[in-house]
């Protein structure tokens, strides 16, 4: 479904980002992985099949210059930029009483400013080709708000607003912008939760199980491909029915 296309994926060295990269490569895409962990990113490139299909680029998404270099690397290396997945993220969970201003700023900067940088700089390239798909990774936390995540919930809600506003701005140029809101997805981060917290979250899911990164990747593929050619500004929940 992505033959001949090039995708940039931020936070692509592990977790959901790597699962998306795997699925895109399986569907014929070349991928550029932007991440701050050089060893993990190089290992991801090897796992994906090497330099013929993947490239590693060190990138701090809060720095517009580095994001510009990241999207430029896609064009320089593989000849185009057709898909942009803004996935990079961090958590600094704490209640409002204990959360520091720095922790708030860090999370909002990586998630929201990072997604804005990726969206606008990818769009600058895509608008010249009059085609392209941008996929922003939000979270169900941005829909309902979760205790201890005033920073994360605010940032993820902001990504929804960013997605909708950007979609309206560039739809006439042939560039689509959509978002995904994952719920409880099995990963190293979520599996490190205390068992009682995991069980509490699991009890809220009608499908009675956590999701897999590959299940988010399938939705990202749908939004990146021509299957969603008449969709822009939408937000798709991948939650097993949680918080519907």
From TrEMBL:
Entry similarity comment: Belongs to the short-chain dehydrogenases/reductases (SDR) family.
| Lineage, opening ranks | Bacteria, Bacillati, Actinomycetota, Actinomycetes, Mycobacteriales
Q: What is this protein called?
A: 3-oxoacyl-ACP reductase FabG
Q: Which SMART domains match?
A: PKS_KR
Enzyme class, first EC level, given as a word: oxidoreductase
| EC number(s) given by UniProt | 1.1.1.100
Q: Which Gene3D superfamilies match?
A: NAD(P)-binding Rossmann-like Domain
Domain (Ketoreductase): residue spans on this chain: 5-188
A Pfam family that this protein carries is: adh_short_C2
